[in-house]
Amino acid sequence: MRIYEGRPAQAVGRLEKEMKVYDLLDELGIPYVRTDHEAVMTIEACREVDEALHIEICKNLFLCNRQKTNYYLLVMPGGKNLQAKELSPQIPSSRLSFASGEDMEKYLNVTPGSATIMGLIFDPENKVQLLIDEEVLGEEYFACHPCVNTSSIRLKTEDVLGKFLKAVHHDYIPVKLSR
């Protein structure tokens, strides 16, 4: 698997939403490395990508409350499993479940298997609350998809938390999830 510095040389064959991610990262002066790969739908399928980028790609879960009035993007280490009863009191919201693929597309412009913090570019009305596990916050680097699951990028966590989130007008709630 090849590693590239920055954006693809050509946009041919790339989706507009992926290119918007690269445009914003470049505009903000955020350096990143990228790898292209077959579509990966699960964290387990990302192992080869993890090895290429020398990092564990984050698990991104798109959740909602029972009434579907509050939406959450939970970013956590790939090796952790979600315990909703552990998360609910920290946000606070009860009866969390996975949001639909249609809602994921509506609010983040991504499809199932492609959920990513980069999708917040497409949430100008802040309908999605970002939740980040404290273990992710403590890492030097952060890896995710650029709104498609056929590429992955690695960038500094401080750039994501500072420059990127500020540019897309989102804040985050730190959460603590056990392994």
UniProtKB/TrEMBL annotation:
Pfam families assigned to the protein according to its UniProt record, in alphabetical order: tRNA_edit
Organism superkingdom: Bacteria
SUPFAM superfamilies: YbaK/ProRS associated domain
InterPro entries assigned: ProX/PRXD1, YbaK/aa-tRNA-synt-asso_dom_sf, YbaK/aa-tRNA-synth-assoc-dom
Residues in YbaK/aminoacyl-tRNA synthetase-associated domain copies: 37-160
Family note: Belongs to the PRORSD1 family.
Protein name: Prolyl-tRNA synthetase associated domain-containing protein
Top-level taxonomy: Bacteria, Bacillati, Bacillota, Clostridia, Lachnospirales
